[in-house]
Amino acid sequence: MKKEVVTTIEAKSGTVVANGHEDVAKRRLGGVELAGKSAKHESAENVTLYEGLLSGNEAIALATWHSGAGMAVGYPGTPSTETLEYLAKITSASDIYVEWSTNEKVAMDVAMGASLAGDRVLVTTKHVGLNVAMDSFMTSPFIGVNGGVVILDADDPGMHSSQNEQDNRYLARFAGVPMLEPSDSQEAYDFTRAAFELSEKWDTPVMLRMTTRVSHSRSKVTPKPVRSPRKGEFHRDQRKYVMLPGNARARHVFHLDRLAKMDEWAEEVSYNSEEMRSSQVGVVTSGISYQYVRDVVPEASVLKLGLTFPVPKQKLRSFASKVDRLFVVEELEPYLKDEMAILGLVAEGAEFFPRNGELSPRLVREGFQKAGVLEAPKELPLAAGTHSVPEVGPRFPLLCSGCSHATPFFLLRKFDAVVAGDIGCYTLGATEPLASMDTCLSMGSSIGIAIGLAKAGRTGGRPVVAVLGDSTFLHAGIPPLIDAVHREANITVVVLDNGTTAMTGGQPHPATSSGIRGQSAPKVDIPAICSAVGVSQVIVVDPYDVGATSMALQNAIARDGVSVVITARSCVESPVKSRGRVYHIDTNQCDGCQLCMNLGCPALGWDFSLDVMPKRITIDAALCSGCTVCAQICPQGAILSADSETNGNHKTPATLASVNDSGKRG
Amino acid sequence: MASNQTAGKVMTNGNGGENMASVRSGNLVLGGVGGQGIITASNTISYVCIEAGLNVKKSEVHGMSQRGGAVVSHLRFGAEVHSVIVEPGQAEWILGFEWEEGLRYLEYLKPGGVAFVSTERRIPPSAQVDRRGGKINYPLDSEVPVGVVPVDTYRIVGKAASERTASAQTVLLGALSVEMGLPVELWHKAIEATVPPKTIKANLLSFENGRSWYEERKGGATARQGASSHSEDYPNRSTNGNKAASSGIKKLGSSSEAVMSISSWMGGTPRVEITRAWCKGCNICVSVCPERVLSIDSQEIAVVSEPDRCTGCGLCARLCPDLAIDILLDEAANDEPVQSLAKKLGDNR
User: Fold this and answer.
1) d(CA A640, CA A650)
2) Domain ranges of chain B
3) Which of A20-34, A175-189, A405-419 has the highest average model confidence (pLDDT)?
4) A443: nearest Cα among A491, A403, A412, A480
């Protein structure tokens, strides 16, 4: 314990260094500390100042840098997002190329290219993002690598912020790439460094499989000596790099041969550890589940797998023979259980631990109680009755006050449209009171679903509208838009252009004018893309102007064929928090009609100081962003800014701002 | 493998938080609303623990919670820490940065533990959906549960609740520091290292205010028992109107008062009446109704499809170009003739 503390303090002052790399290590370790304190544009909550306590994602970023990687790419997605952001924060452009890609497949391809040119590369993606990159991912072990390629795949058990909870351990097995599973931040750091070595050793990308809890929890990390950047260059090797069937057949044989060799190697790796304690109960586990098992059944023997593809077959057999009862504790699918079943090892666990959702110490404890390993609790574990807890209501996520997405959804509900939605903040448009979204499947799926709905033609006469964000449009919305034009689908596509990737915390994308480090970058033009693929009517409108947005939508919906409406207004929270004149309610005018409450704005609420019904409205001055939308729709003209006239025009300069200027506020 | 199903019941329940009498180990749950500085506060506590030579793990929920939802952070410290999340019934301390969000995590509190819960209230829009009845889905007037110490953070730092400064919530850390007992210098150092530089002074002041407030309070009564006797810390529950007003919410008294029904105030239940012969189906009333009471029928005439949702606001009647809509009051209790709501509203304005 004492020793660990000393190590950390030494690491802070930069004295833990490798021979010959002293200066580099000092600068880099110092850089971590500095980066935390000088973080710009960051809300206080996102800044971690204690460099010894890193999140799993931050540990991976640090290890990527310390492994001498030359590139890191990915697409934002919870829970993987912070990795590239942190890496960009603690390094400079001359250290390592860090950038967001247009989507995960592009990231995977860019990574393969850089690897062939000799760089070590990190690719970051959330679990469903790997589906997008799947085409390249599946063939990447055939081509192999030059510099090591590590794929950070962050699964989201419990779906904290995802549309499904698929278990990507199957994808590593499917592609036949080695997979490492860290269980805390130190392991995330160590395994990342190991993964780069393994990738080069086995000539294949390596998957580093994280889960939300490991990615987003923080624990102490002791860095290791910094490695100099890898040097290499591209050499032509068509038989390895050009996957014509003739070449691919040979590579498949190589791949199968490699799998057999990896099986043998898996027995010896240090990432798997057998911890023998009581011989009565043995648990095979990996990742965060290991930590829960250690807390809940501290006396049990544990085979902790850090390498979960390929699994160590002999080790599993030997461990099983040493214990009376053999358990598997794993989150989501029975992956390890099935791997063991192939070996003829029957393990308990699936009947005691849930197959859906996130595990927790409580669920693991209840499972071992059901299994009879732990005594059933004599009284309820919560000491029920001791804490009489009042009923609390749910607190759902909301669109922010002043969110530029509120107006389009408010209007679409009025137009009674069938709305095919997409993935982003605006998926919250599906919840009350906006409640104007009918489908949400996957990134970019809105336009394709809208085509299908319109072609099937059975929407009861309701117009079909696809709604997606700017980043999502670029990610996967362009091919279906081309399809819609070519097939003459009668749909309206609304691109909610807030100039950022908002849901994941505001990352730049190709239609913004900056890169991940804030450097300037050429901006692609979304209206021009729409026109170029043949959309005959593209309207750009400011969603803070309710009347104009209503006209634009009405016009587009009435028109035959594909129309695009781009609601352009920068995100109210990113890259900078924007605040305009604060509005208030004239309580003499307000008649409590609640129309403004239909915007779902968090700044609007009931005025509890007035004993009248229906409830009058009040505006929380601390939350009001001054967007003016509620003032524009108020039938009574009861929503005023300090200097607007009682019955005057509510169109403030904000709403009259140039509709094309999505990057700046009026 | 020798499978032995009868081997069971050999083990004791694992620790997960026992032996926590010493301040050298412990479990904390911090809850609040996005933007209140919950994660910064958990960073501060982590810093203190690490400086005190302890191991720390913490876990927080990201993702959709950033959009105004509930934020929770679990923090565990000790010589050896495995799990990153606290088991229910195992937290020595809970910090609630918002009243409802503090109560939400009470199931994590260990018997005898202390939950410091700010009396700041942020009633979410989803709690204000009963527009006709006016009921709110929020524990506004709940009894103070055992173990909860209500902390009027804004009053303690002498600020108005409407200011919404995150630094006011550092009062909670001041109170916590008394319970945790680690050297106060470590706390100062941790605050300086973890809060945004511009707010260091305000945070240190809040911390000291919270610390002395709680020390004083503890001197009077045992924190773990006397929570509910300190009504001055819990303005909305007491009869002290001034303090209630300062926290931005009017005292509502008993629940029956709070949930004044629309009929008791208006003297009847509002009813929309549409003169079908005058309606030309322009759809204006359907699209403006905030409660989505109206719809257009197969004959292109406006009809009342959700009569129970009508709040009697009269927007449809005012905007009808054909004067085809009137809002009437059905007086359930007596035999007075139905009267126009417009007149009644005029009387009450």
Assistant:
1) 8
2) 26-258, 263-348
3) A175-189
4) A480
User: Position of tokens 């939300």?
Assistant: A212
Measured CA to CA in angstroms, residue A635 lies from A551, A553, A616, B69 at distances of 18, 21, 14, 30
Lowest mean pLDDT among A177-181, A570-574, B10-14, B134-138: B10-14
Positions in chain B whose pLDDT score sits under 70? 1-22, 62-68, 220-267, 331-349
Q: Which of A249, A231, A232 is nearest to A240 (CA)?
A: A249
> DSSP assignment, residue A340?
H
Q: How many CB atoms lie within 10 A of CB A169?
A: 25
Distance CA A307, CA A287 (A): 10
The fraction of chain B above a pLDDT of 70, given in percent, is 72
- Burial-class residue B3 by CB neighbours within 10 Å (0-12, 13-18, 19+): middle
Q: Which DSSP string corresponds to A167-192?
A: -THHHHHHHT--EE--SSHHHHHHHH
pLDDT tens figures, A514-564: 999 999 999 999 999 999 999 999 999 999 999 999 999 999 999 999 999
Residue in this structure with the two tokens 């001498």, named with its chain if needed: A68
Asked if the Cβ–Cβ distance from B50 to A53 is below 8 Å, we say yes
Statement: residue A42 has pLDDT above 80: no
Report how far residue A117's alpha carbon sits from residue A146's, in angstroms, rounded to the nearest whole number: 7
Q: Which pLDDT score is estimated for B161? A: 74
**Interface contact A295-B290, CB threshold 8 A:** no
**CATH no. of B263-348:** 3.30.70.20
Amino acid at A585: I
Express each pLDDT in B245-297 by its tens digit.
Answer: 333 333 333 333 334 444 555 567 788 999 999 888 888 888 888 788 999 99
**Predicted local confidence at residue A388, as pLDDT:** 61
Question: How far A398 CA sits from the closest chain B CA (Å)?
Answer: 5
d(CA B2, CA A319): 11
Q: What is the dihedral of CA A640, A643, A646, A651, to 10 degrees?
A: -70
Q: Walk me through the domains of chain A, giving residue ranges and CATH numbers.
A: 52-235 (3.40.50.970), 273-370 (3.40.50.920), 406-568 (3.40.50.970), 583-641 (3.30.70.20)
Would you report the helix, strand and coil content of chain A in percent, each value rounded to 5?
35, 15, 45
pLDDT of B221: 57
Nearest to B107 among A382, A395, A592 (CB): A382
Radius of gyration of chain A from Cα atoms?
28
For B26-258, give the CATH class.
Answer: alpha beta
Q: Which residues contact A253 (CB under 8 A, 6 or more apart)?
A: none
Interface test mutation site (partner A, options B64, B114, B264, max chain A beta carbons within 10 A): B64
For residues A624 and A110, give the distance between their C-alpha atoms in angstroms, rounded to a whole number. Answer: 42
Q: Which of A613, A618, A632 to mutate to test the interface with B (most CBs of B within 10 A)?
A: A613
> What value does the mean pLDDT take over residues A54-79?
95
CB contact under 8 A, A393 and B82: no
> Rounded CA gap, A26 and A47, in Å?
22
Over residues A633-663, the pLDDT tens digits come to: 998 889 998 766 444 444 443 333 333 333 3
pTM: 0.83
Residue B16 CA: distances (Å) to CA of A192, A278, A368, B69, B218? 29, 19, 14, 28, 29
Mark A34-50 as b/e (b = at least 16 C-beta within 10 Å). Answer: ebbeebeeebbbbbbbb
The overall average pLDDT reported for chain A is 87
Best of A12, A343, A380, A387 to disrupt the B interface (most B CBs within 10 Å) is A387
What's the whole-number mean pLDDT along residues A566-584?
A: 89
Question: How far apart are alpha carbons A293 and A302 in whole angstroms?
Answer: 8
Chain A environment of B29 (Cβ under 8 Å): none
